[in-house]
Design a protein that fits this description.
The protein has 246 residues and is an alpha/beta fold. It has helices spanning 16-27, 39-51, 66-80, 104-132, 153-173, 198-205, 216-227, and strands spanning 7-11, 31-36, 55-60, 85-88, 135-140, 178-185, 237-240. The protein is globular and about 45 Å long.
Length: 246
C-alpha cells in the first residue's frame, strides 16, 4: 500500500473531492483525519472507512479560525503522534456574478476559506513536519486560477493566489524536506457545482476536449500521486482538466 502508516489530514473531507480522497488514501493504508465543518458528513466518512477496516477520526474544523486549526493539530498529535500529509482541500465556490455586483463580504469570505484557510493550516502544521524531518502538502487550486471564464473574478483570483502560494511555500520549505504541490481541477461533479448556473457549466464543458466534467475520483488519484510516488515534484500544479489547459 502506497500510504501505509502515513497520517493524513484532509480538510473539506465530508463530501466531493475530499471524501473521495479520504476513501482512496485509507484504501492505500493511511490513517485519516477528516477535518470539516459538516459534522454529520464527516462522521459518515469516518464510519465508512472504519467499516472497511481503515483507521480514521473526525475533527470539526473551521479552517478560517486559527484556534480551530491549533486544536486540530493537538488532537492529531495526541492520537497519532505525527502528521505526514496535509491535503488543503476545503474551499467554497463563488462567482457567476458580475464584478460590480460582487458583495464585499462575499469576496472576503471567498478569500478567507480558499486562501487564508490554507495559510492557517500550513502555518500550524509545518512546525510538526519540520520536527519529523519532512512532509507533504497538497493544495486544491483550480483551472479557474489559470484560465478563468467570465463572471468568476472572486473565485478565479482566489485560486490564482493558491497556485502562487503553493510555489512560494515549495521554495521556502524545500530545505526541510517538505514538498508542496497543488491540483488544478476543471469544474468537478461535486455538491458545490449545483450552486452554479447551467449556462456557466455549459460554458466550461464547451472548452473541455474530453467533453465531460471531472469526477471527484479523478482528482483523488492525482492527490494520491502527489502524496506518494512524486518524490521529485514540488511547486508544481497538476491539471486534472480534460484538456482544458491545452
Amino acid at each position: 500500500m502506497r500510504l501505509a502508516d502515513k497520517v493524513a489530514i484532509i480538510t473539506g473531507a465530508s463530501s466531493g473531492i475530499g471524501r473521495s480522497s479520504a476513501y482512496l488514501f485509507a484504501k492505500e493504508g493511511a490513517k485519516l483525519v477528516v477535518a470539516d465543518i459538516d459534522n454529520a458528513g464527516g462522521e459518515g466518512v469516518v464510519s465508512n472507512i472504519k467499516t472497511k477496516g481503515g483507521e480514521a477520526i473526525f475533527v470539526h474544523t473551521d479552517i478560517t479560525l486559527a484556534s480551530e486549526i491549533k486544536a486540530l493539530v493537538r488532537i492529531v498529535k495526541n492520537k497519532f503522534d505525527k502528521i505526514d500529509i496535509l491535503f488543503n482541500n476545503a474551499g467554497i465556490t463563488a462567482g457567476d456574478t458580475l464584478v460590480e455586483e460582487i458583495d464585499e463580504s462575499s469576496w472576503d469570505r471567498t478569500y478567507d476559506v480558499n486562501v487564508k484557510g490554507i495559510f492557517l493550516a500550513t502555518k500550524y502544521i509545518v512546525p510538526e513536519m519540520k520536527k519529523a524531518g519532512g512532509g507533504i502538502i497538497i493544495n486544491t487550486a483550480s483551472m479557474a486560477g489559470i484560465r478563468p471564464v467570465s463572471r468568476i473574478a472572486d473565485y478565479a483570483s482566489s485560486k490564482g493566489a493558491v497556485i502562487t502560494l503553493t510555489k512560494a511555500l515549495a521554495i521556502e520549505l524545500a530545505p526541510y524536506n517538505i514538498r508542496v504541490n497543488c491540483i488544478n481541477p476543471t469544474i468537478t461533479e461535486t455538491p458545490l457545482v449545483e450552486l452554479m448556473s447551467e449556462e456557466w457549466k455549459k460554458s466550461i464543458k464547451s472548452v473541455l476536449p474530453l467533453g465531460r466534467l471531472a469526477k471527484p475520483e479523478d482528482v483523488a488519484y492525482a492527490a494520491l500521486y502527489l502524496a506518494s510516488e512524486s518524490a521529485m515534484l514540488t511547486g508544481m500544479g497538476i491539471n486534472v482538466d480534460g484538456g482544458h489547459g491545452i
